[in-house]
Amino acid sequence: MRDVQRILDALSSPVRREILARIWDRELPAGEIAAAFHVRAPTVSQHLSVLREAGLVTMTRQGNFRRYRTRQDALRSLHDALTDSAAKWIPADDIPERALAHAETHGVVIAQIDVETDQPTTFRAFTDPAVYSRWMGVPVQIEDRRFSCSLEWGTRVVGVYEHVVEPHLIVLRWDFEDDNIPIPGGEMTGYLRFAGTEAGCHVEVHQLINSPEHAEFIETAWTVVLGRLQTGVVAASDQRVPATRRARRPKQRRSA
Question: Fewer Cβ close by (within 10 Å): the C or N end of the chain?
Fold first, then answer.
């Protein structure tokens, strides 16, 4: 079971799952794998190490290059192990004690704002990297639904637009490439909803969270983003208005 848990931990990262898909039936050098992702090469190298330790990839050396390929048999073995484990679960629907307790699940931060631009223009502000860069005040890249930007205090944000339903919805899976953030690491999922109004557009973010500390940080992050959207989207959507860039500044750390 330790081997199974190691595999499950390795598969918990969407980046590692995509790496496995890319080398499912072919062997690729580490550099070519890293080039397919908008993250730093050392980060991809770390993901490959996790996959190798879990027994999910093979590695061969060819001169100074390391080449990787998915071990399909390891994933088939995982399926067999999970199938066997599923038979051990006992349904709890017929246990009367369940009716004596009350349970609620609250795992989402909701941030919202109204802007003056119409729904299509506001939606484009999150999908056109040129417009996005103008109202955020920092360079934003979006390519093949992969998102990345470096904030003025140095933190890099990366993600993937998993679902785009123009001009209503964006499902964004994202993370920080920064070890000095006040929340546990790991990718997060946010839902950006756009609704037209008489005065413009209503933008609402539903962000899945893990803990109260996580929620506090995410509330701050999304209110900053939406605040910048409201103050900058009108000018950013007009190419005649010169773009501005935010000056670099040091991180602010909360005292203990």
Answer: C
